[in-house]
Amino acid sequence: MVWRDDTGRALSDYERPSVAVDVAVLTVIDDELAVLAVESGRGPALPGTFLHPGETLADAASRALRTKAGISDLGFHQLGMYDDPSRDDRGWVLSMAHGAAVARRRLPDDALLVRITGQTPKVDLAFDHNTMVSQAVQDIRARYSDHPDPDRLLGDQFTLLELRRLHEAISGTTLVKDTFRRRFIGALEGTGERAASDTGRPAELFRVRR
């Protein structure tokens, strides 16, 4: 039996859009926020792909990162659906944007990284990917506003200076040293070790409190 809606039309009577995924992978280089891009027929773009039959959006996002950017085992989450009918000149394409953040050391050495000013890539990306990046930047800023390092961009241990510089790169602002310390010190614990230093007293190393 074929299902029909209240107008008598079956599912096959409706036009269907293509469904795609795009992933905004953020990182920090030289104390600046940057986004991973790949070359496409329309210039630099976020890693993305079309959904295959029987595939979930998460499966497609993982495949896009693996095949387009050479990245595996990267955590990511959905940011939102982009559904402007005119967003892709190839046809009617919906795209689920995903966000991720990763330390530079986990990306390929030859990765194309586009630096970000404010919330916008310094190089225009294809389609509506600039808007996706802006949303990803807002997302990471919100997550870092109340957590020292949810994406473990600094690894297992770090100095307070390294943590503050990370937050300054993500927020795009200069942070007051003492105010920053008071804000996050309760979420940290000392490791009992100190960072190596050629000059002055070695700084104490911290980790996120478990």
Task: Provide the fold topology.
Blueprint: E1 18-29, E2 32-40, E3 43-45, E4 48-50, H1 57-69, E5 77-82, E6 93-101, E7 112-117, E8 120-121, H2 129-144, H3 160-171, H4 177-184, E9 188-194, E10 204-208
Parallel strand pairs: 1-6
Antiparallel strand pairs: 1-2, 1-4, 2-3, 2-7, 5-6, 7-8, 9-10
Explain what you see.
There is one protein chain. The chain is an alpha+beta fold and 210 residues long. The protein contains 4 helices and 10 strands, in the order E-E-E-E-H-E-E-E-E-H-H-H-E-E. Strand 7 and strand 8 form a beta hairpin. The model has no long low-confidence stretch (mean pLDDT 94).
Keywords summarizing the entry:
alpha+beta; two-stranded antiparallel sheet; elongated; 210 residues; eight-stranded mixed sheet
What amount of the residues lies in strands? 25-35%
The chain-level mean pLDDT equals 94
Instruction: List the uncertain runs.
Output: none
Principal-axes geometry comes out as: elongated
Largest sheet: 8 strands, mixed
Number of strands: 10
Structural class given helices, strands, pairing? alpha+beta
Q: How large, in whole angstroms, is the Cα Rg?
A: 21 Å
How would you sum up this structure in a few lines?
By secondary structure, this protein is of the alpha+beta class. The chain has 4 helices and 10 strands, in the order ββββαββββαααββ.
